[in-house]
Write a structure and sequence with these properties.
The structure is a homodimer.
Chain A lengths: L1 E6 L3 H12 L4 E5 L24 H15 L2 E4 L2 E7 L2 E6 L2 E10 L3 E3 L15 E2 L2 H4 L7 E5 L3 H11 L4 E5 L9 H9 L3 E4 L2 E7 L6 E6 L5 E5 L2 E4 L3 E3 L27 E3 L11 H20 L6
Parallel strand pairs in A: 1-2, 1-6, 2-3, 6-17, 8-15, 9-10, 9-15, 10-11
Antiparallel strand pairs in A: 4-5, 5-6, 7-16, 12-13, 13-14
């Protein structure tokens, strides 16, 4: 019986682990991948305070090393189900069952799909959700980036250095990305913009060949030849395996102490309902969730 | 007229600065000291994820360099007053007035005093609130540490390596510090504990000579010869200069977006009401406050 099982080994989960060990809890982190966190797929992180500029994978390796050196055990398992039986939580994984007094869910979120014809069939054949992962396959080719937020523009900039042209297709008439990224995108020579536009269909037999674009203001529909489509239209939380209160998008609802609707179960990072999803906010959530788990498990008041 | 004035250059303020610049805001950080944050007075930080073990001052230098490289201006000023005139906030400093559309208060907190006879008179003459700052003056001498929380035990351990003996005087019969620190303290050879005990008086002419101790359970009162008294009985927020909703201890009340009771004024870090005060939580608060200020100033929705 663990004091605490942490599900997910991204910034939130590893930070929770570091804090849990300091609180003296018997803790384990379950993570299905080698290195986790959406951030590990990010080329350059410039906004985790203390590191001016660092590769996402490298930052996560530092987190992992920090956690392991502090004494956190990280086990490679995929969690299938969490059952809340009051004082005992049963965590079912692909490698067996664990019992815990408390659980922190830090499973992050995954890229949302557009849900249009051709998308699922052509994933890995020209359709991608990660420029850092797949950009190099499109050297000197022409690609579309769908979206106008931080992820879309960040990855459009990464792609612009590899591919021939980047066409940003955005359903609105302005970007939502932070100013500094917008400015970089507007001044890039090989980035062009399709405003008020959506993709209706992705077409290709072996690989992506063309897309059908629709202008939402004029209703004009046209085909466009393209080699790749990178999609950044939001994220969906990885929270299907647990039955607790979530918002309509599936993000777990917590209070400021990361407490969920189930006593002894906490949520931290991208998988919870919050207005900002960053490495630093996830790490902070993890610390806070570990404190709450510690207080719950030991009954010791440790606040100030 | 600035888009945003950030008051305080500790982890919360500098993180807010880094984020504000990325959001394209015209921002300035006001800080009265060269390097700020209570953390800069901390010998070793082992719980800011990504840095296994780093000196507090060094960590803050990294934050400062990160902020400055990102383009944040840090001005040396002490803020005397913040006046909320609706759309305009007037920030009065010892070097003049600034106008801002929004303000983030990140002024942290300072050590609380015991409020007993002899304390104020003997500050700097044996009474201290910071082992890292003053510990070396007590080499091979005998000192008392007052308190049982993280700060008390962390600093007791630091002192134990410098002084002859450390006597931890704590008003309860158990420590509140995290488990790992408790274990280190219990196994230190030159640390002893006075449980259920308070200091009633500090006595000394030039420097601290003795204290009067009282056992709260037996009511026994006794004098004890001592060379120094290090006090860790909590913190008080530096929030006197602004008239917004605070709790009874003076900590600013915010919601999860760091919004205070005054529109356009945000609070982040140790100065706000929260259950955990760490570098990582302060940095996260700063990022969140910058987002809220950005949304307020530009009217642009940037959430997910």
């Amino acid at each position: 019986m663990y004091d605490l099982v942490i599900i997910g080994g991204g910034p939130a989960g590893l930070s929770a682990g570091i804090y849990a060990i300091r609180y003296g809890l018997d803790v384990i982190v379950l993570e299905k991948n080698e290195i986790s966190g959406q951030i590990a797929l990010t080329e350059i992180v410039e906004n985790y305070p203390g590191f001016k500029s660092i590769n996402g994978m490298e930052l996560m390796e530092k987190f992992k090393e920090h956690a392991q050196d502090a004494g956190v055990t990280i086990q490679s398992s995929e969690v299938l189900n969490v059952k809340n039986e009051g004082k005992i939580k049963i965590v079912s994984t692909d490698s067996g069952e664990l019992e815990a007094k408390s659980v922190i869910i830090a499973t992050g979120a995954s890229p949302q799909h557009l849900g249009i014809p051709g998308e699922e069939e052509l994933i890995g054949k020209g359709v991608s959700y990660c420029a850092t992962c797949d950009g190099p396959f499109f050297t000197n080719l022409n690609v579309i980036v769908v979206g106008g937020g931080d992820s879309a523009i960040t990855d459009a900039l990464i792609l612009s250095k590899i591919v021939k042209t980047v066409s940003i297709v955005h359903r609105r008439d302005s970007l939502r990305a932070v100013k500094i990224m917008q400015e970089r995108a507007f001044s890039a020579k090989n980035i062009e913009f399709f405003w008020d536009t959506v993709i209706e269909k992705i077409i290709g037999s072996e690989t992506v060949e063309k897309v059908v674009l629709k202008n939402l203001k004029t209703d004009e529909v046209k085909e466009m030849k393209i080699d790749g489509v990178f999609i950044y239209v939001g994220i969906q939380p990885n929270t299907y395996f647990v039955d607790i209160d979530k918002n309509k998008s599936g993000f777990i609802i917590t209070n400021a102490r990361m407490e969920t609707s189930a006593e002894g179960i906490y949520a931290a990072g991208d998988c919870r309902e919050t207005s900002l999803r960053q490495v630093v906010t996830a790490a902070s959530d993890g610390a806070m969730a570990a404190l709450s788990a510690y207080e719950y498990v030991t009954g010791v008041w440790s606040g100030t």
